[in-house]
Amino acid sequence: MNANSKTTSRTRLERREQEILRAATELFASNGFHTTSTRRIAEAAGVSEGTVFHYFGSKHDLMLAILDRFYTERLCRQAETILNEVMGTRERLRALALNHVQQLAADRALMMRLIQVYIGVDLLYVHGDDEAPERDSPIRALNRAYVGYFDRILREGMARGEIRGDVALPPCRDLFFGGLEYGMRTYLYRHRGSADAAIGDYAEELVEPLWRYLQADRVTAGATADTDRESLTRRLEQVTRRLEQLAEG
């Protein structure tokens, strides 16, 4: 087989894999994981059921391949670019927030629905096997790798003196990603006609109160970390209420 034939064959195989992934993504999101059969996926992809199993050993492996590709190629790769090309901590946070919402909002948040579907499957996968420790859960490993970029942003910000050094990472991380995904279910979906502007506005609205909390000069003589966290939570709740009012209006 010559080089051109090998290239053509590889391209054909890759295209077939993409078609299987595309069909499975749409069916899992619309019909659910458990009610979608591999036969239906094969029909939608225009291949035999045996071909699906040739590429992916099981339906569970197929779902994981979809999420692995999404996390690796769209979330983590862009997060790595942000850390390499953007220097300021605040600018990094805004860029990470904007990319997170843009990626999850694509195709009417198809991937977010898949992540929610997979959480239930993943829990069954982990707890159904007594020898599979929770820390080895595939979706947890993917998520841990991704949110690690947020942690790096804060740690490097602390090292440069841009943010306070006593920041607790877990609550900041939960507020950051939780706020973004909550906003998608409220404000962003109600403004599909101006989605780009809405996404940018929401990223800015969320980063601003978090940034105020993180800044080194926010610590005063009588302030404590617990008090500042409560203040941050109140400000984020105010932002959420404001966005909901805008959406309803």
Protein described:
With 249 residues, this protein is mainly alpha-helical. The protein folds into two domains: 14-57, Orthogonal Bundle (Arc Repressor Mutant, subunit A), CATH 1.10.10; 58-248, Tetracycline Repressor, domain 2 (Orthogonal Bundle), CATH 1.10.357.10. Helix content is 78%, strand content 0%. It has nine helices and no strands. The longest helix is centred in the middle third of the chain and has 39 residues, at 89-127. Mean pLDDT is 78; it is low at 125-134.
Total helical elements: 9
User: SSE string, helix = H, strand = E?
Assistant: HHHHHHHHH
Number of domains: 2
- As a whole number of angstroms, the C-alpha radius of gyration is 21 Å
What is the CATH fold-level name of the largest domain? Answer: Tetracycline Repressor, domain 2
For this entry, what is the oligomeric state of its chains? single chain
Strand content: under 5%
> Uncertain regions: pLDDT < 50 for 5+ in a row?
125-134
Largest sheet: none
**Alpha-beta classification:** mainly alpha
Terminus-to-terminus distance: 64 Å
Helix share bin? over 70%
- The count of DSSP E runs of length 2 or more, i.e. the number of strands, is 0
Shape: elongated
Going by CATH, the homologous superfamily of the largest domain would be: Tetracycline Repressor, domain 2
CATH architect. name of the largest domain: Orthogonal Bundle
CATH classification class of the largest domain: Mainly Alpha
pLDDT average, as an integer?
78
InterPro entries: DNA-bd_HTH_TetR-type_CS, Homeodomain-like_sf, HTH-type_TetR-like_transc_reg, HTH_TetR, Tet_transcr_reg_TetR-rel_C_sf
GO molecular function, one term: DNA-binding transcription factor activity
Organism: Pseudohaliea rubra DSM 19751
Protein name: Transcriptional regulator, TetR family
